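Long-time lurker, first post. I've been practising inverse folding by hand and with some scripts of my own, and I keep getting stuck on stretches where the structure tokens seem ambiguous. Below is the full token string for one chain I'm working on. Before anyone asks, I'm not after the true native sequence, just a reasonable design that respects the backbone. If someone could post their per-position residues I'd love to compare against what I wrote down in my notebook.
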């Protein structure tokens, strides 16, 4: 007997290009930022990794793009990325951007 397909079986997997476009549009949710801004942004980066928006090896949006979109100083977003790197979530490479660490899901 055949079972009807569920919604999850009918939805095609997003293409690599579509996933990359979604990642580049990702921005921390300004409405959810409470307390120290850099910690809240780092928490949202972690949540995006844990929920699968970003996967190991993915490139994060640039710090400048995030700072400009949210209206925060670049130093604030830089501190958030440093905090995410300290947590082992991302690796920052000078002039090459920040990528999700392959160790980020091990914790």
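-- Answer (accepted) --
I ran through it position by position. Result:
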């Amino acid at each position: 007997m055949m079972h009807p397909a569920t919604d999850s079986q009918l939805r095609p997997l997003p293409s690599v290009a579509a996933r990359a476009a979604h990642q580049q549009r990702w921005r921390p949710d300004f409405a959810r930022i409470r307390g120290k801004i850099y910690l809240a942004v780092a928490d949202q980066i972690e949540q995006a990794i844990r929920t699968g928006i970003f996967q190991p090896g993915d490139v994060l949006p640039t710090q400048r793009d995030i700072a400009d979109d949210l209206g925060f100083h670049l130093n604030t977003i830089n501190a958030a990325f440093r905090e995410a790197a300290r947590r082992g979530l991302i690796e920052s490479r000078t002039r090459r951007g920040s990528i999700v660490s392959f160790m980020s899901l091990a914790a």
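A couple of notes from the structure itself: Residues 1-13 have pLDDT under 50 and may be disordered. Helices lie at 7-10, 16-25, 37-50, 63-70, 74-86. Happy to go over any region you disagree with.
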